[in-house]
Amino acid sequence: SEPGETRMWAVEFSSCLDHVEVCVAKRVCKAWQTMLSRKGFENLNLEGKAKIGEFLLRFSQNSAVASDVRHISLRFCDELEESDLKTLESFRNLESINLDYCQKISDEGIRELARRVPRLRYISLFWMPWLSGKTARCLHGLDHLRVLNLSGLTHLTDKEVGNLVMAAGRRLVSIDLTRMKSIGEASLGAIGQTCSKLQTLRMYSCERFTDAAISHLGKGCPELQVLDVCGAKALTDEGMINIASGCRRLNTLNLTWCVNLTNKTLEALAQCRFMCHLSLHGLKNLTDKGMMVLARGCPHIIVLDINGCCNLKTRALADLQRAMFPELQRLVTL
Predict the structure, then answer these.
(1) pTM for this one?
(2) Centroid of chain to Cα 329
(3) Backbone torsion region of residue 275, taken as left when φ is above 0, otherwise alpha when ψ lies between -120 and 50, otherwise beta
(4) Which one of 11, 129, 242, 297 is CB 3.0 to 4.6 Å from 215, fit for a cystine?
(5) Other residues' Cβ atoms within 10 Å of the Cβ of residue 280
């Protein structure tokens, strides 16, 4: 075949392979090795792979590949051992790692990771509830962190999370604290004091924080764009008024089952003119009057959830588009 056709075939062929399959295919012959060496390894996706230790070792021993790697996903790698994390030291430009539900990784493994890869900018530890406050302390030295996912780390205390944010949070733009029911004054106070660049905060099913605690965000996080406080049973209008006045760049807000909120919250949110995704699911105290005020300030809402808002009379998509939200594309009512 012509050289041009060969190159096109090589690109098409390599695009069908993941990184592990590329390593296997490169062993076929020198021609294949040359052809497949062009496949970039910046994002190394090894999610759920068996014999993961062997693959990490193989990648780490190839200095050209290891130096290219910026992001590694090891999500759901059941066979990942703590000793395997030692190989990550060879990935000298590594910025991001995902260890979601890696069942054999303990506090000691996180300590080893933080020691060997101190310039991490992203770390995800989703649903590793066996990790303790020792993990939080191990992460203190990662002062380049921009994205921190602690979702489901239910054994961490409010104080431990707060201390971690104070130590490593000055560059954070995204924090996920989903289902961490201890979150309160210490954590949110630290976020408000330290994370002036924060853009995303997820606190789904964090039930115990108060208006006073969440008000720290309004004072210290002016860049906040995405906020999820689904299920915040203690949250009232006072807390949301403080959020709306200080976080006017909000564009995505989940207030599902924040049952104490009233029209006063909608009136405050009218200050957030970038709002486009809003969930008011289960908020029984809202009325059309409050929605009209919201619409005047937030005309660009495209996704709206009003399921369970039993006092709202205007509920049809066409009616809401005509009377309140002309750009509305998706409406959830059931």
Answers:
(1) 0.90
(2) 25
(3) beta
(4) 242
(5) 26
Residue 71's identity, in one-letter code, is: H
CA–CA distance, 188 with 307 (Å, rounded to integer):
29
Pairwise CA distance, residues 65 & 58, whole Å:
10
CA separation, residue 331 to residues 26, 132, 191, 279, 289 (Å): 50, 41, 33, 10, 19
Size (the chain), residues: 334
Q: Tell me the per-residue pLDDT of 231-289, one tens digit each, with 9 for 90 and over.
A: 999 999 999 999 999 999 999 999 999 999 999 999 999 999 999 999 999 999 999 99
Euclidean distance between the first and the last CA atom of the chain, given in angstroms as a whole number: 58
CA 253 – CA 270 distance, rounded (Å): 13
Phi-psi label, residue 211: left if phi above 0, alpha if psi -120 to 50, beta otherwise:
alpha
Rounded Cα–Cα distance for residues 278 and 298 (Å): 10
Residue corresponding to tokens 């944010």: 165
The residue among 302, 303, 311 whose CA lies nearest residue 282 is: 311
d(CA 96, CA 277): 28
DSSP string, 270-282: TT-TT--EEE-TT
Token pair for residue 199?
A: 């853009």
